[in-house]
Amino acid sequence: MLIALIARDKPGALQTRLDNRAAHLAYIEETGVVSQAGPLLEDEAMIGSLIILEVEDMAAAQDWARNDPYALAGLFASVELIPWKRVIG
User: Fold this and answer.
1) Which segments of the chain have a pLDDT < 70?
2) Which domain CATH number covers 27?
3) Handedness of CA 29, 67, 34, 44 (dihedral sign)
């Protein structure tokens, strides 16, 4: 099952993002369920994340999102988990 995780950073939280970036990237590598990922941008500044998870079910996506170092650091103002269907690519 593919799940799109769309997270918006809290205003003024760029330093939190930068401080936790290495742990976030290590988590992505260690868990092996991320098929695509990257930051959302506004005027070239990182303001959130778009991550495509390939997981067994929504509960697994919720668990992954809850344990992401960015989430544990309190970076996000909001997180959406939406089932997604790949059509191209």
Assistant:
1) none
2) 3.30.70.1060
3) negative
